Amino acid sequence: MTAVGIDVGKASLDVAIEERPGVMRVANSAAGIRKLVRLLTRLDAARIVVEATGGYEEPLLETCCDAGLWVARVNPRQARNFARAAGDVAKTDAIDARLLCLMATMFADRLQRYRAPLPWQRELRDWLRRRGQVVTALQAHRQQMAMCPGPIRSMAAATLAALRRELAAIDQQMRALLDMHATPSLGSCKGLGPVFQATSLALLPELGALTRRQIARLVGVAPMNRDSGQSSGARRIRGGRAPVRVALYMATLSAVRWDETMKAHYRQLRARGKLAKVALVACMRKLLTIINARRRDALLREAAAPA
């Protein structure tokens, strides 16, 4: 095995390879990534660790996966904590790359291999990301309209109308992708609307492929123990994929009101003395478990169906 650590920046990639001196820098562009992947494919069983960097790492991850390379994406907090544990408080791109390489050496068997989305999931992810930008812009312009005088107000209204048209076009594109690829399992409970379906398919490609505990930890709705000696601390959720968790939270708010199974589960938890937020998080976990199991069964049926 050859450990590789890659620190991702907007313009460049810093690459540290086990037992090679120095750190190599390549451009974070299509050409630079292709050059790097050709080098990595020549290594003996490369184990690559990349730190999440606000989406700038996605082209690298997907190109590595398409080339059949083993690659893992780690949370920046996890990488920083590892650096502190290693006693390296300084921070540069080269240091970060070497520390990620060390992490690959020590923890390759414990890190989860990155599972690249399919091409249609990548397209759906891009539409979903743009939708979030348009929704944010719409909210800002609606708030600004109250402070706009006469002629400026008409210009702001034209901008609002253009944003609404763009949002409708984006929703149409997303619905077309959902019609082709979403299984009925994703809409099997009340509250699971198009935005939740698009979010789960685009940002949670592992849905249906993991156990209920694994998927809960991945999304960030699994309670974490805080026990030491004779003390037993309160369990709390932390980490996970925030955009998926937000979409799941909104879906659960609707489900506990309109879906009979989820409503009964929520009321049972409240009757046992659970706080409202604790009960709601438990319902989020239950809803995710149901969706994950139904998605798994649907994918198995599709795989078993004759071509």
What would the keywords be for this entry?
3 domains, globular, 11 helices, two-stranded antiparallel sheet, alpha/beta, 59% helix, 307 residues, Nucleotidyltransferase, domain 5
Using only C-alpha atoms, the radius of gyration works out to 23 Å
Strand content: 5-15%
State the distance separating the first and last CA atoms. 38 Å
Helix content: 55-70%
Total tally of structural domains: 3
- Enumerate how many helices there are, as a single number: 11
Number of strands: 7
The secondary-structure element order is EEEHEHEHHHHHHEEHHH
Mean pLDDT across all amino acids: 89
Poorly predicted spans? none
Structural class by SSE content: alpha/beta
Oligomer: single chain
Identify the overall geometry: globular
Biggest sheet architecture: 5 strands, mixed
Summarize the structure.
With 307 residues, the protein is an alpha/beta fold. Helices cover 59% and strands 10% of the residues.
What's the SSE blueprint?
Elements: E1 2-8, E2 12-17, E3 24-27, H1 30-41, E4 46-51, H2 58-66, E5 70-74, H3 76-85, H4 93-107, H5 119-145, H6 150-181, H7 194-203, H8 212-219, E6 227-228, E7 231-232, H9 242-258, H10 260-271, H11 276-304
Parallel strand pairs: 1-4, 4-5
Antiparallel strand pairs: 1-2, 2-3, 6-7
Helix pairs in contact: 1-2, 5-6, 5-7, 7-9, 8-11, 9-10, 9-11, 10-11
Care to describe what's here?
It is a single chain. The protein has helices spanning about 30-40, 60-65, 75-85, 95-105, 120-145, 150-180, 195-205, 210-220, 240-260, 260-270, 275-305, and strands at about 1-10, 10-15, 25, 45-50, 70-75, 225-230, 230. The chain has about 300 residues and is an alpha/beta fold. The chain folds into three domains: about 1-105, ATPase, nucleotide binding domain (Nucleotidyltransferase, domain 5, 2-Layer Sandwich), CATH 3.30.420; about 120-180; about 195-305, no CATH class. The chain is globular, with a radius of gyration of 23 Å. The relative contact order is 0.08.
